[in-house]
Amino acid sequence: ALDVSGDYRGYHRHTLGLVRSAARMIEHRLFETRHDLRHWGGLKLRLHAQPEGLGTVTEGLLAVREDGLLVGASATALNILGLTWRDLQHVRLDAVLAESMEQLLDWCQRSTYIPRVVHTLSGQAVWLRVETGRSSSGVHRTIAAPVAVAELTDALAAMDTGDAVLQAAIARARKVMGKAIPLLLLGESGVGKEVFARAVHDSGPRQSKSFVAVNCAALPENLIEAELFGYQGGAFTGARREGAPGRIREAHGGTLFLDEIGDMPPTLQSRLLRVLQDQQVVPLGGGKPVAVDFALVCATHRKLPQEMQEGRFREDLYYRINGLTLQLPALRARSDFDELVARQLRRLVPGHSILIAPELMVCLRRYAWPGNLRQLANALRTACALLDEQETVIAWHHMPDDLAQALAADSANLEAPWANGDEAPAAALDLRSVSRQTIARTVSACGGNLSEAARVLGISRNTLYRKLRDQAGSR
Asked: 469 lies in a domain?
């Protein structure tokens, strides 16, 4: 115990902070002693939200045994990974990080001093430095060498463009394919939930049967019941004489994908729950129940636990559809942006090598992409359509106007943190060059009207005046 009690008149506001730092230092020393790499052959991971925090008293420490079991941790590491003390000796590394044990070993063999970015399975990015024990000859110990497996070439494998969070989602989806476990896909609009669901279907044992997609938000409330459950002839005014089987029966033997299930009217949630429980559907207008068998995949951009608390989504239905939840990453959080762009360009203009101008590519990487993959695909499709016959490089004038303005605003808002006289790094010079070009292009497009140019760029007139003065002074 650290005793800092004393006369209250000697109080100092930083005392508690000093005690906490001392406690962390003691915790770190005990951890380092127990997992001294001269005698212990597992992995030691140093974790922090920022690369500058690695090696300091604020970092988290994690000990991983040769088989991937977590055997030791500091309180900070447990907090970063969302674990408790009880999880130690029970949870393995692949249950908390998207990166594999083999990947960490590979990094360790290259260099133990280079910080790397890893991702938790919830999508949080964490900086890491990995260390391992060495034998007396100085060679890394062999740890859980992977068994060689045939390379997969199915639809899910085709989605893998290198992002660790998506790779983890794909790996978990594979483990439940063919089992009676429904999938619940979460993510912002446009991240590719339907594409992922279709890839799961096309990669699984039901691939030869139907994949039936229903957008619960797109159908009018008075039609969704007939669309899902089908109806007998003459069941309602306007019904076809021969009736209709309904989308659920059409999915028999295959996969039923319910997109935006969070928008399903509450009155129909109870009927869907009964179908999922009984594996039978009764069409509107009566008739005998019809047995159905399908794999269920649901998707939503809504936070269903919050929807349940506010009474808009049934709790029993939530637990029926929530067999395995997968969070698909937003485009701005993915590490494979360049490969995604390259793949889209190859698909849009097959047989041609289409490139993106470097200064434009810098801005595209930085953009937040609120529409995610859907917005990116539309932007590249438009840009490719605007290319002249002999052009092979997409430039600013090929971008849709609204996106070009958003990119220009981002570029114009760049600030130079090295204004103290130090030489700017090369990457920063590129960004400053993009900022200058964007401002000049926007002012020219506005006919010299600086008020209009500032409005388009999304900055104040004073900021635009200052940037123009700075540019004039740097010439």
From this structure: yes
